[in-house]
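Input set for joint prediction.
Command: fold jointly, output tokens.
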Amino acid sequence: MRKFLAKNAPGYVFLSPWLIGFLFLALGPILVSLYLSFTKYDMIGDPRWVGLSQYEYMFTKDKRFWKSLQVTFTYVILAVPARLAFALMIAMVLDKGIRAIGIYRALYYLPSILGASIAIAILWRQIFNIDGVVNAFLSMFGIQGPNWIANPDTSLYTLVVLAMWQFGSPMLIFLAGLRGISPELYEAAEIDAASKPRQFFAITLPLLAPVIFFNIILQTIEAFKTFSSAFIISNGDGSPADSLLFFTIYLFNEAFKFFRMGYASALAWTLLVIIGAFTALSFFASKYWVHYENEKD
Amino acid sequence: MSGLSLKGISKSYGTVEVIENLNLDVHSGEFLVLVGPSGCGKSTLLRMIAGLEEISDGTISIGDRIVNDLPASQRNLSMVFQSYALYPHMDVRKNLAFGLTNLKMPKAEINRRVQQASDILQIGELLGRKPRQLSGGQKQRVAIGRAIVREPELFLFDEPLSNLDAELRVQMRVELASLYNRLGTTMIYVTHDQVEAMTMATRIVVLRAGKIEQVGTPYELYNNPQNLFVAGFIGSPKINTLPATASSNESGLQINITNIGKFSYVDLATTTPNISVCIRPESFKINQTAELNLDVEIILVEYLGSEIFLHVKIATGQTLMVQASGKSNYKLGEKISISANPQDCHYFDADGQRIQAKNA
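tokens >
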């Protein structure tokens, strides 16, 4: 034991800020929320044990739960590929030798720093309002655009566009990945008569697969957890007509508007299971399409 | 099978001129080696031939086609890269077939060529493996296989053996030479290793700072170097160089090696007083007298089995290299005398250009 401590103590000392924070600030609430998910709890009285009944209600009777799942999944399915495709496109442009590339990288990354902020969500409202920038632009061509955010048919897509605009962090990861591909492979492909699209699909994409996989996992989890921008744009209640009723917004309202803390906890654990299942599935599927160069067989 | 012609080739990066007005004819079916120190422009030249690098000026022709504006894929050549550049996510078969697939070749023909290349290079059992599962030598074979399947007019090799260990390098050298004998296709091979150049080439081009110093067969380059640079670059161990002065007298040319001694060489004609006398290590005779005699002390003995390299110090403090038979026995600190015949020496003027003997 003494030997173990002497050997590992410095490691644990350095880990301790995170470890203490996790144990007291995260693990406790996590376990409590698991317990609460089996209770009815309004934050005033004591939690009342109801077993699995809340989960049963959620899956069998709660239409808004299913609506929130539909909104969230639609968003994930649209926003993640859109953001990643856009990020990859910009990364490929920035991967070329352009003068003052550092400035461009910083500029392109900026929306991602600002993107999660309330200010940007408010700005987004202005852009897509009935008299916003988008409609002003369309009116130049004689097109009268709808009120994008107030229209349940289009509101979700404005958020997808916002997600695309926040391409900075996957873009940087893609850029690092692209830098890792040997230029000689492209030269060999050039001599091997591979066209540029063929080079992209036969060389770039397969070699970028680990990075794409990493970005898919990261961005999908992020997308499932989308909250602040949707909260601001939907006035905090998922409107119009629940078209922006993201899972997280539904959960937030159940917890802090209707004080159904037990049910909100059950929702939170359901989201965790969904994200966990998606991640596990992705890892399972990855062995069929992700190639690791240094992998030993 | 085609030759290659380079006329007035130049390459600049901004104001830096890497290759300057280079002219070279590569004969059809020859194994031409471009050799030179790092930064001499040999790889750039090869990449320009390949079409991977644009030329700033001049004309490149393969056979009778000017290929200046043709992309690499349409020059009908193959290239083996220093890093092999195998596609890491494809197995060996796909690596070999990739170029042929891009050319939309019929599947049966692709299979035939892949099979043929794998037979030639004995990589049949590796076809299902990924590059990461191959050793350095196997990767090299696959890279060569990828070049062979195209059945090109021209093979380009960019230092293909430099990532291999010494033993494998020697083995691959032999294999490449026999591959050349078998295919008979024009090959241009870049290396900084003059042993590779000497052992494989039908002709060698020695480059320095983007200019051709000499073009010739390995024999010509070794025995008749046209300048001091080529004399120093070709040959291992390096040629010995002694500063000297030359003056004419009644018995011919009198050569005075600075602080060492004089000898005459009737066949040599020069008007420049300051010259360099170069002697290959194997041209020295030990403990025998000749026109040029030096008393030396052995400061290092390198025993190689079949031969011995003696590092010896002369009176001026300069170190020379002397080659002796492996059967001889020399000791550190031993004082010996070495000698050379004037006709076995190479002479260069103050500008480093060869001074030809009259009867040469």
